[in-house]
Amino acid sequence: MLNNFLVEQHVKNALMEDIGFQDISTEALMQDKMVTAYLKTRVDGIFCGGQVAKKVFELLADNVAFVFYKNDGDEMKAGDTIAMITAPVKCMLTGERTALNYIRTMSGIATQTAKYIKAMNNPKVKLADTRKTIPGFRMFEKYSVRTGGGTPHRYNLSDCIMIKDNHIECAGSVTKAVELAKAYNSHAHKIEIECENNEQIKEALKCGVDIIMLDNMPVPIMKDAIELIDGRAIVEVSGNVTIDNIAEIAAINPDVISTSAIHSGVKPLDIGLDM
Length: 275
What we know:
Elements: H1 4-19, H2 24-29, E1 34-41, E2 45-46, H3 50-60, E3 65-68, E4 75-76, E5 81-88, H4 89-120, E6 126-128, H5 138-147, E7 161-163, H6 165-171, H7 174-184, E8 191-195, H8 198-207, E9 211-215, H9 219-229, E10 234-238, H10 246-250, E11 256-258, E12 271-274
Parallel strand pairs: 6-11, 7-8, 8-9, 9-10, 10-11
Antiparallel strand pairs: 1-5, 1-12, 2-4, 3-5
Helix pairs in contact: 1-3, 3-4, 4-5, 6-7, 7-8
């Protein structure tokens, strides 16, 4: 479950952005009364974001009641009713778009993640996201990836030391970069390094890194690299991963495949609120 305090702060900001000083359409047209509405999906997918949608309406009125027929992670079929909501009509109309923006986006990511895992067809390999997220929306994207069956990568830059090509260039070598990282690192963080060829992999193994990332390599070269590493470090592969080639990549048995394709630019799921 998402941290409720963080969800509330985010939803408050979203409502402030959307409402401004007043929802003048609803205030002009509506006398407040209790109404019932239904969240329904128009397409197949994986539901995600119920906690967030509920928070939207609860922040707008005290007398809101939710009945969920689907929980986060449940499969949905087109036409399914996800939830029944009873609330004051002004609350319902004012919060509708904000709630839908959350659950449509989150359900889209969860659905995309589940599709990639199914296509991967290898339960031994973990599927992870990246930091290519919408600023301010990362916790929802990563939660949605987990809901769809994925394994979130580091949440932010402080989660682990990740040495990429530009770090190596600036440090001078793989060995120097790892030495500096180990001197600075705490016992609680892993060290991951991005390698482009076998020479860098051998150097990284000699330095005793925890994770080796094979980035943008052809599958046969990645396969040889995994055999070279031989279990001496966690192997992550990344770059140019698609729904069409992920099974081929998974078949060479890396520990982790990471891709932004499961969350970045994913089409929101078609979910509506019917009064």
